[in-house]
Write a structure and sequence with these properties.
By secondary structure, this protein is mainly α. The protein has two domains: 177 residues, Growth Hormone, Chain: A (Up-down Bundle), CATH 1.20.1250.20; 210 residues, Growth Hormone, Chain: A. The chain is built from 15 helices and no strands. Helix 1 runs parallel beside helix 5 and helix 2 runs antiparallel to helix 3. The C terminus is likely disordered.
Length: 413
């Protein structure tokens, strides 16, 4: 049973806040540091980060497995320290190859840390309270990123090498504090290694869970919408003023901070989770249709109002999807393999962030209005497919528990 220490959720929130502030500043200012100060090209940064996150997403499964076998608290602490070291190494970068190596270490440590923290949360929080705990963590993450973005903005305004390096130092210090906070949490017992010929990374053969991960990755294609595709759309296809891009980002961040926990409270099991994800797909389709309307040559202020409506629908869909996805990812992972399963499930984020920009910009910037409708259709289809996929995974899990066979073997039939 999970350790229900009352201070554990608060400590997890503090750990999340400590590294998210530094991350917010890092995300805002790092690209310009590497181009303006180090002298890398935009293409080099893009290639380096794409390869880094590809490596990180694969390594996250193995590091999640390590968290299961060695204990999630100790693994999370070590990976937080590794992330701090990777961020610190950026202070010394002067060329492309060291940048790519440091970025790969950073992405690997971040992916593994996410999986280990999920396993740690599973060991410290009762199953019925996990979705709400994750919602609080998400709200805290958004708050920290917002504060950090403000700090990063100051560095951008200063534009000096010292200002940029101060941001890197802040981010590294945040991960050091995160490691310290995680070290103070109760220990969660490690799970013994599999016996009887079971594969070490069983999740790689669990077909129902792989399908859930794939569908979740499709739904996560919303991630590059707000940061990349929508700004390009607003500038190139609408009459709205440029400041609307920042306003929509603030709207999204504030809404998640204020309402994510409330949205997640109603999601306490798989039936509620599948309904939440299904609803999110319908709302995302509506959001895409509303955004498409802004290409109709409306006046500036009418366009702003329509964009605000689309953004409001988008953030409602985001919060519903997040709450349902968290519950599904945890509920259908075997108790002794939370780390590796969450590491695998979490690959949807780097995959969406790596491949999503190319897909959504092609659909929206190149295709225009039809692209919005195609994208909305993808969200609707993925959310609708989640219900039968969850039923398949539930059936495979029940059969495995009844027969004692590995879930991945049952699910493969």
């Amino acid at each position: 049973m999970p350790n229900t220490s009352s201070r554990a959720p608060r400590a997890l929130l503090l750990a999340q806040l400590s590294n998210s502030i530094g991350d917010g500043a890092f995300y805002v200012s790092s690209a310009l540091y590497f181009t303006r100060i180090v002298g890398l090209s935009a293409a080099q940064i893009g290639i380096g980060l794409t390869l880094a996150w590809a490596v990180g997403s694969v390594a996250g499964v193995g590091l999640g497995h390590l968290a299961d076998r060695r204990g999630p608290r100790g693994t999370a602490v070590l990976l937080a320290l590794a992330t701090a070291a990777a961020v610190g190494s950026f202070l010394l970068i002067r060329s492309f190859v060291p940048f790519m190596i440091a970025a790969a270490v950073y992405a690997t440590a971040q992916s593994g840390l996410a999986a280990a923290r999920q396993a740690l949360l599973a060991g410290l929080v009762e199953p019925s309270a996990r979705t709400e705990a994750l919602a609080r963590l998400q709200s805290t993450l958004n708050a920290g990123l917002a504060v950090g973005a403000g700090i990063g903005g100051l560095a951008l305004h200063a534009g000096t090498r010292t200002a940029y390096l101060s941001v890197f130092a802040l981010d590294a210090a945040g991960f050091l504090l995160c490691a310290l906070v995680l070290r103070g949490l109760p220990s969660v017992p490690a799970t013994p290694a599999a016996t009887g010929g079971e594969p070490r990374l069983a999740v790689l053969r669990d077909r129902p869970y792989a399908l859930l991960t794939f569908l979740n990755a499709l739904l996560l294609l919303r991630l590059p919408l707000l940061s990349l595709a929508l700004p390009l759309w607003i500038v190139e296809r609408t009459a709205a003023p440029g400041w609307v891009v920042s306003a929509l980002f603030v709207l999204n961040t504030a809404a998640v901070m204020l309402f994510q926990v409330r949205t997640a409270r109603s999601v306490t099991g798989l039936p509620q989770a599948t309904r939440a994800v299904g609803t999110s797909g319908v709302v995302m389709l509506a959001s895409c249709a509303v955004f498409a309307v802004t290409a109709a040559g409306l006046g500036p202020w009418t366009t702003v109002a329509v964009l605000a409506l689309g953004a409001a629908l988008q953030v409602v869909a985001e919060m519903r999807h997040s709450a349902g996805s968290w519950q599904i990812g945890f509920s259908l992972a075997p108790a002794g393999r939370i780390g590796q399963y969450q590491g695998f499930y979490g690959t949807g984020v780097p995959v969406a962030r790596t491949l999503g920009p190319l897909l959504v910009t092609t659909l929206l910037v190149t295709w225009g209005v039809p692209g919005w409708l195609v994208l909305g259709g993808i969200f609707l289809a993925a959310s609708a497919a989640m219900r039968p996929a969850v039923r398949w995974a539930e059936k495979a899990r029940a059969q495995a528990e009844a027969t004692g066979a590995p879930t991945e073997v049952v699910g493969a039939r």
